[in-house]
Amino acid sequence: MRTRGDLATGYLFVLPVVVSLAVFLIGPILYALYISFHHFSFLAPDQATFAGLDNYLKLFKDPRFIRALGNTSLYSLGVVPIQIAIALMLALIVDAKIKGKTLFRVVYFLPTVTSTVAVSVMFMYLFKNDGLVNFVLSKLSIPTFDWFNSLTFALPAVMMMAIWTTVGQFMVIYLAGLQDIPQELYEAAEVDGATPWQRLRFITWPMLKPTTFFILIMSIIGTFQVFDQMYVISKGEGGPQDRTLTVVFYLYRAAFKDFDMGYASAMAFALFLIILLLTIIQRKFFKEETN
Amino acid sequence: MNKKSVITGLMATSLVMTALVGCSSKTADTQDTASKDEKITLRVGGWSSSPEEQAMLDKQIAGFKSAHPNVEVKFEPVVGDYLQKLQPMIASKTEPDLFYLDAYAAPEFMEKGVIEPIDDLLKKHNVNLSDYEDAAVKAFQSNNKTYGLAKDYNTLALFYNKELFEKAGITSPPKTWTELQDDAKKLTKDGVTGFSISAELPRYQPFLYQAGGTVYADGKATLTKSENETAINFIYDQMMKKDKSAAIPKTLGKDWAGDAFADSKAAMVVEGSWLIPHVAKKSPSLKYGIVELPVKEGAKPSNMIFTVAYALSKNSKHKDEAIDLMAYLTGKEGQKITVEGGLALPTIKEMGKDYLTKYPEREAFVKGASYALPYQYGTMGVKLVDAMNKASEAVVLGAKADAKAALAEAQTKIQ
């Protein structure tokens, strides 16, 4: 039986979370929305003036923002499919009955729990002009590049790093998905004489669809919000000719280097809209496929 | 039963609320105005770039404390991005009483009026601005008001590796652009690059100004001025791409030119006196000389001053004591320690001589100061420097055909 008292107790219990969410999440988001319509500097909040849509219109004319958005999209396009393919492959491997699979699981997962900054510094040493990668390439008589300082290779080098770092996390999610697939399906398929490839194509892949959808969305959101690798590798500058400048990185620069918090907030909301749009499209696409 | 759960819920809520409130009431300790014998605390904000620098500041603060026993001084170093931390502190009125302010970022702070003008306080405490180097004073003045006292400064000079010069048969360091170019060619061999300079305005600006260029005049960016192309083309196209006798540090696998110099990968670099302790630590046996920057044939010399001041918080509850501390840290007693430390040059004119007696081989830095411009470009500093860095980089990397095209793009970026 439910009484008014029970209801009050319930609300009291959720109150701490509601209050902290309101104070630390919803409040700041609303405030950022407010700021995005103002010429606003963090140095002197009381001197803010109303800007209308100025900050948002500026986004379309700012070559650096367009470059940042282009870089981010390219990064996402490169990282997401490769990441998903490798994660699935690794999950299939460590799910198979092989010796020492626990060790492999740990090894593949390790980069995920390593700090991004540490990983970035490590990759900087690997890809330095006189670093290990170039050393190996030159031994094999393959032309070498100044990776992070090259217009062509700076972004791909960061992509490789991102894939290496995050693939373990998605592997674990796929692994959970794989273990959810009922064993009977495989047994039935075997009775029908299905080849291993057919089993993968017609059982594993369709059964993993919800997992793939989840990973796809997480991966796209993650790649669109990329910041730390870029920041560390370009020393806060955006790389050669802004080739590794991403939206969040540019947002940070606008807010804390150019003192333009209003414009930075507008960028944040633009990014939010882009991610929202991408997610809606994927949802629709996946729903239609399952129907 | 029911009552009990209400009480539990209430307790849980109040616990969280206390935790939340606890977060916001941290800064109450400097609230009360102090009488003479009451102990007060002054907070000083800054960054700490090396243990040597930190030790110097500790010594300075200890000196002040022994003269002012009623004042406790707490240094709060910022790790990471200083301006990122300072901005929200100022917005929430919790910034330290005194804090470091780089000349390069100062115009934004002065124009927004978020730091305290100190002219009246300086007069009251008998601090004479004319004791300080003019360029260092001007860097922290806006609309006839003074906003800070410079703690030290640096200028640029040419460092050259004496051993490599001897090996290449060069008897004296280059004084002109032609000599720089010729010497760099002779020095470039056996894994050594003749000259290394990063693609950054605060390194190549002296060359750009020697050739008659300007990047900032009367509050406006003048990046597309045709004279600006000369130096960029000379260093980043002619020397780096055509002669291959110069390189940016990244090409040499280094983060900055000074490190390439310390490892004898570059025979000449343009840096400030901050390179001296780095070389001493990394390659103590390296023999090198420091001379004034090479000057374009028939042109006037040019240099730049990098300086950091102490600024006074508008919200400080102890402005008089804070000015005393500022005057001490930047005064003769404080800067005596700066001279001894040798990381930077003293901003008090008189002490420049002490510096020279102690380090006669560093004369080039003091000489350079006499014709230097402050590293400051009004409120557009960050954008302007960024655009100019990218412009020179575009020439090195071949992203733009020449300096003219690169500068044209740079100008559009800051509008």
TrEMBL record, chain A:
Provide the membrane topology annotation: Multi-pass membrane protein
The entry's cellular-component GO terms read: plasma membrane
Q: Does the keyword ATP-binding apply?
A: no
Query: What residues form the membrane-spanning segments?
Result: 12-34, 74-94, 106-127, 147-176, 207-227, 261-281
Which CDD domains does the UniProt record give? TM_PBP2
Record has Cytoplasm as a keyword? no
- ABC transmembrane type-1 domain location is 69-282
Keywords from UniProt, A to Z, are:
Cell membrane, Membrane, Transmembrane, Transmembrane helix, Transport
Task: Kindly indicate where the leader peptide sits in this chain.
Answer: none
Q: Which Gene3D superfamilies match?
A: MetI-like (1.10.3720.10)
Its main subcellular localisation, reduced to a broad class, is: membrane
Localization recorded for this chain is:
Cell membrane
GO terms in the biological process aspect are: transmembrane transport
Q: Which Pfam families match?
A: BPD_transp_1
By sequence similarity, the record places it as follows: Belongs to the binding-protein-dependent transport system permease family.
Question: What is the protein name given in its UniProt record?
Answer: Carbohydrate ABC transporter membrane protein 1 (CUT1 family)
TrEMBL record, chain B:
Q: Which Gene3D superfamilies match?
A: Periplasmic binding protein-like II
Entry's Gene Ontology cellular component terms: ATP-binding cassette (ABC) transporter complex, substrate-binding subunit-containing
Lineage of source species? Bacteria, Bacillati, Bacillota, Bacilli, Bacillales
Family the UniProt entry places it in:
Belongs to the bacterial solute-binding protein 1 family.
User: What UniProt keywords are attached to this protein's entry?
Assistant: Signal, Transport
List GO BP terms, alphabetically.
maltodextrin transmembrane transport; maltose transport
Annotated signal sequence is 1-19
Which InterPro entries does the annotation name?
SBP
Alphabetically, the GO molecular function entries are: maltose binding
- Keyword Signal listed: yes
Q: PROSITE patterns this protein is in?
A: PROKAR_LIPOPROTEIN
- Name of the protein in question: Carbohydrate ABC transporter substrate-binding protein (CUT1 family)
Superkingdom per UniProt: Bacteria
